[in-house]
TrEMBL record:
It comes from the Bacteria. GO terms for molecular function: endopeptidase activity; metallopeptidase activity. Residues 253-336 form the CAAX prenyl protease 2/Lysostaphin resistance protein A-like domain. The chain crosses the membrane at residues 54-73, 93-114, 135-153, 159-180, 293-316, 339-358. It comes from Actinomadura litoris. Keywords: Hydrolase, Membrane, Metalloprotease, Protease, Transmembrane, Transmembrane helix. This is CPBP family intramembrane metalloprotease. Pfam families: Rce1-like (PF02517). Residues 1-44 are annotated as: Disordered. One of its GO terms (biological process) is CAAX-box protein maturation.
Length: 372
């Protein structure tokens, strides 16, 4: 048949060209895209190199132990103290914050040096290690050793705590990305600056993620946790800074760093490693939610209120493979929590959700393939 012929072969119905618009679509027609369509990611984001189940679990647990382990032990000990546990169980609650950060940085530096050495051997078995990453990892280790030696009180201790928690947050992201790269997983698959998020739909998706995550956070911290604190259960009766052993300034900085530490480990690292290992979603949720609740054990039984936030963030990440919006929401919420009236927070959440659910993204119909 000559090219361009419009006649039909027997038994084969004709189909319109791939780039043709639907019959009902007209130029300039606009339609709203459902929220569910925004919460998607391309197949390349989910095409992870396979890991064995044991290796996936070991990697996720090792990252959790190295980056958050000492802090986690202290927070659980504080929660046990609130529940009336004996002193031999709760003694880790007296660990100095600077010493905890020093131990984390030292262990992180050892792992980073091992990763850089393995990477250099793969690239050039007879070559030398790259100078800059090796020197940076060594600097992380030296800072960790220095912080381990700093104990006491006063302004110097406060600044040691601040430097330590900021360094731990940055080194933790570096280690998670390094471990992922060592296992063939890119930074984009870990949710850091994925290329499919650079256009307008990607920005709308980021707003959607932020709105849902913020809503879950507000419901948990403004409704569930305060309600549980009014019940006759073990709960904190003093400030969080006093419970964790620090000043108000160091605790504020720690709250900002928590956005990086918690979301990178509890969400991205856990989800990616266990998904690559072929584990079912229920195991991802169980590990992530349990770790997040234990991380907030220092407030007592009301720590169960963070379960909604944990589930929402993990669900958003598994759907979209976007980590940066989750970190941004967590960081902004902790930064503005003490300065926003509670009513304003609810109003903002409702406005964001209303805009998203009604008509946030009106696209040309010939792109979405739907009629107005």
């Amino acid at each position: 048949m000559p090219l361009g012929s419009t006649s039909k072969r027997p038994g084969r119905p004709s189909s319109p060209p791939a780039d043709a618009a639907p019959p009902s679509a007209t130029p300039g027609a606009r339609t709203a895209t459902p929220v569910s369509r925004w919460l998607d990611s391309p197949p390349s984001a989910r095409d992870l190199p396979p890991l064995t189940g044991l290796r996936g679990y070991l990697t996720a647990c090792a990252l959790l132990a190295v980056l958050l382990g000492p802090d986690l032990v202290k927070r659980i000990a504080v929660g046990a103290h609130l529940a009336g546990a004996p002193a031999w169980v709760t003694w880790p609650r007296h660990w100095p914050a600077a010493a905890i950060y020093g131990a984390v940085l030292t262990a992180t530096a050892v792992w980073l040096l091992a990763l850089e050495g393995r990477r250099a051997r793969r690239a050039d078995p007879d070559g030398c290690r790259p100078v800059l990453p090796t020197a940076a990892a060594g600097g992380v280790g030296l800072l960790g050793v220095a912080l381990c030696a700093l104990t006491g009180t006063g302004r110097g201790q406060t600044w040691a705590d601040i430097i330590g928690v900021v360094a731990v947050a940055g080194a933790g992201v570096w280690l998670c990305l390094g471990v992922a790269r060592d296992r063939g997983i890119s930074a984009a698959q870990m949710g850091i600056a994925p290329p499919w998020a650079a256009d307008r739909p990607g920005r709308i998706q980021a707003v959607t993620i932020a709105a849902i995550s913020l809503s879950a956070c507000v419901i948990g911290t403004k409704l569930l946790i305060p309600h549980q604190m009014s019940l006759p259960v073990p709960t904190m009766t003093t400030s969080q800074a006093d419970l964790l052993g620090g000043t108000d300034l160091s605790f504020r900085v720690m709250g900002l760093a928590a956005g990086f530490r918690e979301e990178t480990v509890f969400v991205a690292a856990t989800a990616v490693m266990l998904t690559a290992a072929g584990r079912p979603l229920r195991e991802l949720y169980a590990v992530s939610m349990t770790a997040r609740i234990l991380w907030h054990a220092y407030i007592g039984v009301p720590a169960l209120g963070v379960a909604l936030f944990a589930v929402a963030n993990l669900w958003l990440f598994t759907r979209t493979r976007r980590l940066t919006p989750l970190i941004t929401v967590h960081l902004a919420y902790n930064a503005l929590l003490d300065y926003w009236p509670q009513g304003l927070t609810y109003v903002l959440v409702l406005l964001i959700l209303a805009a998203l659910l009604l008509q946030a993204d009106a696209r040309p119909a010939h792109r979405s393939g739907k009629t107005p």
